Amino acid sequence: MKIICIGRNYADHIAELHNETPAAPVIFLKPETALVQRGQPFFYPDFSTDIHYELELVLRISKNGRHIDAAFAHTYFDAIGLGLDFTARDLQSELKKKGLPWELAKAFDGSAPISPTFRPVAEFADLANINFRLEVNGETRQTGNSSLMLHPFAQIISFVSRYITLKQGDLLFTGTPAGVGPVQVGDQLVGYLEDEKLLEIAIK
């Protein structure tokens, strides 16, 4: 399986990091070793002093496809969960200054915790109106809604599949809203999909 991530998909997050708004989805990949599953902790790496959380809606791809028409994109994922795109912001800033890829800052081991469970798509009345939020040590830091995406689910799937074949079991991170910030050892992060606690992870 592979982890495909979409960057700069919420206008307020683009603004808080002073980035340019892209005309097309920004795509990067994480390896399978980035996954943190079943509520395991995230261990702060020794190569960064500025790890940031980014909570995202994650789509679980349910069948293989390439060159998928946006009108049929909804048939290519069967469940939605939560994921954290941990980012070594200090490394990312240096890489961006040099015009280099972001992989060292985005794809390191443990950089993609996901919720132990995903909710079936059929449980959502409107895929364009899904609420999610992140609490850090009991304080709400991020709130998002899928209606605020610059590129909605169908457009993302169609765009990605023009370049990369989607396969059953792939995970698609769909971008993060504003409110990102640093984590410290000892922090407890809890993610909610609608009002259901779906993701909980400790920083060690």
Automatic annotation (TrEMBL):
GO MF term set: acetylpyruvate hydrolase activity; isomerase activity; metal ion binding
Ranges for domain Fumarylacetoacetase-like C-terminal: 2-190
Keyword Isomerase on entry: yes
Superkingdom of the organism of origin: Bacteria
The entry's keywords: Isomerase, Metal-binding
Listed InterPro entries: Fumarylacetoacetase-like_C, Fumarylacetoacetase_C_sf
Presence of the UniProt keyword Isomerase in the record: yes
Protein name, UniProt field: 2-hydroxyhepta-2,4-diene-1,7-dioate isomerase
Species, as recorded: Hymenobacter coccineus
Top-level taxonomy: Bacteria, Pseudomonadati, Bacteroidota, Cytophagia, Cytophagales
